[in-house]
Give the backbone structure.
Amino acid sequence: MIRKAARLRGRLALLACLAMIGPAVAACGSGHSGSGSGSGSGVELQFWTINLKGGYQSYIEDSIHAYQKSHPGTHIQWTDIPDFEQTQTKLLAAIAGGAAPDVVNMTPFILPQFVSANAVYSIGDLTSNLSAVQQKYVPSLWDAGVVGGKAYAIPYYGSVSALIYNAKLFRQAGLDPAKPPTTWPQVFQDARVIYKKTRVSGFAQTLDNFDDAGNPADILAGEAGVPLLNGSGKQAAFNTPQAANFLSNYVQGMKQGWIDKISATGAVMDSAQALAQGSTAMVFMGPWILHWLKSNTNQSTYQNFRIADHPVGDGGAANAFLQDFAIPRASAHPKQALSFAQYMASTSLELAKQAPVLPALVSQTKNPYFQSSEATKVLVDQNMKFYWPKIAPVADLFDALKNQFEAAYLGKSTPQQALSAAAKQWDQILATKS
């Protein structure tokens, strides 16, 4: 199973969702052909993924077999790394020792660190037609791999937050479960009504540093529509009256009970547990949580759960999450590695049929499969954006913001004080580490 740590460095939402769903239920087809440049003749490529072997070994192995068949003379050596932290540590050691992989599964959280160290190729270095490559991919997923104006990653698969709610509690509160809230003012209003009528909290949204909605950066950028950094990227830009007013909704809700108090100090699965137990009415997670709910509630309870698009904030889009592929500069075969990375991205539809993820290729998001259920429709019907800063010290920035939000939630500071303190910490971090 994919392990979960308390901090951003050890958290990875999409991998957690895959692990919770369980073993793969179908093998990947073998009809794929390679894409990109490089014939790969007489080449061995080292390929690293993050914790996919436990549930998705057949999918990966079948994909590799298909690529090797269509690229005679190419051999793919697959290594699966147990978690996010080990991937970063092992990659640094491999690069230092001259034995780096050719294609490595990364996330937008660690990619900027390797970009700043000039340890990975920009995609434009490896292809003569970058625009042709770029246009194949979902824009929000592609943009997550753009650092300093250059693309450094091929998107693999993604996800997006949704509203998961208890229709029974909506009815008990006199609300129409067929009309869930679509904006954040409506979320706050419905939460107040639910608590007043049922004494159950309206929603839970923990301050996890990565998991779906609830990250403080998402609350500021996505919900409140406040930029995180100034134009130069060197200073915090979120310390504004607009942000303070928006944050006061959470502080009030926690104090008055219509926002579940686990939102202050809990982890994302605490929110899921609260929904499963009927102690909150709404959570904001990817559709993967439905699989967990089905396995952890009885049938009569599970039938109360519904899924809808994530409420729209002033940021205009729901936060996107993703996995991608990078090509280390230590690769002996970088152009062939790019070919294989593009090919693996083309297999993500097969993965999506085993787990509720979004393929990175635009053409695959139009597959009729994604209109087959509400849980798959939310993946393709929503506007998405990757809001988080794509700079090396992002983990330190998020830790500072999370700690100050928690202080405000617990009544240890006012929203304005929390934002001022966080902005000061961000400026110090950006001055010394970026």
